[in-house]
Amino acid sequence: MRTKKQIVSAHPQTRELTPLEYVILGFLAIKPQSGYDIINNFELGVYRASASTGSIYPVLKRLEKLELIGSTLEVVYETRPRKVYTLRPAGEQLLDEWLRRPPSMQEVIEEYDIAMHKFLVAEYRLSRAEVLEWLDAYEQVVTASLALRSAIIKATRGEGLSLHAQLINRAMEFEIDARLAWIKDSQARLRSTL
Amino acid sequence: MRTKKQIVSAHPQTRELTPLEYVILGFLAIKPQSGYDIINNFELGVYRASASTGSIYPVLKRLEKLELIGSTLEVVYETRPRKVYTLRPAGEQLLDEWLRRPPSMQEVIEEYDIAMHKFLVAEYRLSRAEVLEWLDAYEQVVTASLALRSAIIKATRGEGLSLHAQLINRAMEFEIDARLAWIKDSQARLRSTL
DNA sequence: ATCGTCATGTAACGTGTTACATGATTGT
DNA sequence: ACAATCATGTAACACGTTACATGACGAT
Predict the structure, then answer these.
(1) Which of A164, A167, A178 lies closest to B174 in CB terms?
(2) Residue B81, class by beta-carbon neighbours within 10 Å (0-12 exposed, 13-18 middle, 19+ buried)?
(3) I need a labelling partner for A114 at 20 to 30 A (CA). Which of A44, A47, A72, B31 fits?
(4) Chain centre distance of CA A78
(5) Which domains does chain B have, with CATH numbers?
(6) Strand C positions with any atom < 7 Å from protein CB?
(7) What pLDDT, in 10s, does the model give residues B6-18?
(8) Quick check: A36 and A111 in contact, CB under 8 A?
(9) CB proximity B40 to A under 8 Å
(10) How far apart are CA A60 and CA A35, in angstroms?
(11) What is the pLDDT of residues B55-70, one digit of tens each?
(12) How does residue A149 score in pLDDT terms, banded at 50, 70 and 90?
């Protein structure tokens, strides 16, 4: 009586890129570099503190097969040859589309690191006006997340929140206030250095 | 010329629990409940906004096999029977040990949700004095993370940070200030309601 | 000599999600 | 009748980490 599962083929040629793949496109937009460079730049960046060889090298291979990036073998005597990757037009286009996409609720709540990486890369790919637009959209979603949280809390009212649950709600308020303050501050700085 | 990889057996009986397993122990410490309850309580909690059946039910099975939790089949007429799970002594002990463990740098930087879940559950398992100790330790790690970031920035000085990179550093300062303010606030409130 | 760093890569594994199945009961 | 909710569960998959291999160079 077993029924076969309908597994939809993954369409590897046309599927949406994974976050890590977009992040790597972003690193290459900042500067053409090798897999080794990318791994070491992770600690300087804002997306994860580290990355493993087992994730970076396969991703670079995939992106190259998709013709989103290209590589040149940089051979210098007395050094191991390095494979330096560069963005190709199709990769630039896909990256820009990703950067311009307004942040989702999920990105604001659970993927803060991705949002910040986008902001970092945006300097090299978007115009000042587009960055300001993105910040406006980001601010709206942060404000909406506060409203969402309030709604959830109101829904549980009646049971009465425990002391620690109340304190955690304060933590979220502090966090959201800090982000809104940062947005205001950044908008002002970006406008003043036009 | 192939050499076999030395794969260390995973010792499933004695291995460290995964974060999700500890988180579920924590939910059961707050209140005995079913897998379905746990999934629905995720949005009220602070660890992830959602959880899938494919992760929760297998974890509950594993924890029961390890004798960390027990289940009673709650049969009420006119309702589907629910499997209500409860912490067993071994589970309580393991959970308490986890809650008392001072937060690591990784927990502060990348696993804020886990830290907050611990704080939520701590109300039900630790004494007020232990919670205050935990907050002290948490404060120290937050301060240390600020110092770590400063060190990394100083190391890259010379190249000169880009405008967006500077703004992101400000975002981190805002974030850390907010967390430190919350810690101070919470300590005061916890002390005043002894 | 041996260690640390540069540099690229793969095999096995762990762990969570997606998408399914099942089936009863309650609301429209 | 039909959808939504309650409630538990599994198979296939996606994605990243750990731990390995390889090999050359510079420093102690």
Answers:
(1) A178
(2) exposed
(3) A72
(4) 37
(5) 1-101 (1.10.10.10), 127-194 (1.10.287)
(6) 6-26
(7) 444 333 345 689 9
(8) no
(9) no
(10) 7
(11) 999 999 999 999 999 9
(12) confident
